[in-house]
Input
Amino acid sequence: MTSADDQVPDEERSEPTARRPLHSGPRRQTPALLAVLGLFAAIAVVLVVLTVLRYAT
Output
């Protein structure tokens, strides 16, 4: 069995380009990472506010 890459001559194999990047992970993961960090930040703010309100009264 041969894969698609085995059938491509060495001259046509190119380094990753803007059109065909090696991995497009960071571009897709950034919004998800920001959403998760925002969620943790929101939870932390709520906990701080509740703690301050509890001990302030």
Summary: The radius of gyration is 24 Å.
